[in-house]
Specification:
two-stranded antiparallel ribbon; about 140 residues; mainly alpha; about 5% strand
C-alpha cells in the first residue's frame, strides 16, 4: 500500500548520502574495503578502475571520514572508519537485491557466512524494537 506524503521532506538523508557515495566507483571501493582490500594497487587491480579516478575517490572517502589513510612500512593502506563500517548494511542490501534480480544462472557470486551460527545468511532489515522485518509496506515515512 502506497502512502501519500503531504509534503516533500526537506534535507532528505537519502539525497545527502547519495551525494557522497552514489557514484558507482565509490560504492565498489567500499565493497572492496568491506571484504578486506586495503591497498591502492589491489583496489586498482580488483576493480579495473583508472588510477586517477581511484585516487580522487579515495581522497573523497578519506575527506568524508569513511576511510583512514594509514601509513605502512611500504606505502599506506585505506581502512574503514566506524563511519565507513556503518555503510555495511547498505552494501549488503544492494548485494541482496542484485542477487535476487540480476544474478546469473549459477546464482550469487558471493555469499555471507554468519560467524555466530556458521550458516550462510539471508540478511534482513528488522525493527530495533520488535525485531519484525521492515519492508516498504510495513513502515510509514513521517517527518521527525
Amino acid at each position: 500500500m502506497a502512502h501519500d506524503l503531504p509534503q516533500r521532506f526537506d534535507a532528505d538523508s537519502v539525497g545527502r548520502a547519495l551525494a557522497l557515495v552514489g557514484e558507482r566507483w565509490t560504492l565498489l571501493i567500499l565493497r572492496e574495503a568491506f571484504f578486506g582490500v586495503r591497498r591502492f594497487g589491489e583496489l586498482s587491480r580488483n576493480l579495473g578502475i583508472p588510477k586517477p579516478t581511484l585516487s580522487a575517490r579515495l581522497r573523497t572517502l578519506v575527506d568524508a571520514g569513511l576511510l583512514d589513510r594509514v601509513p605502512t612500512e611500504e606505502h599506506h593502506e585505506y581502512r574503514l572508519t566506524d563511519r565507513g563500517r556503518d555503510l555495511f548494511p547498505a552494501i549488503v542490501a544492494l548485494m541482496k537485491w542484485g542477487d535476487a534480480h540480476l544474478a546469473g544462472p549459477d546464482g550469487p557470486p558471493i555469499v555471507l557466512r554468519h560467524h555466530a551460527c556458521g550458516e550462510i545468511t539471508d540478511a534482513r532489515l528488522v525493527c530495533a524494537h520488535c525485531a519484525g522485518e521492515i519492508t516498504a509496506g510495513s513502515v510509514t515515512p513521517e517527518p521527525s
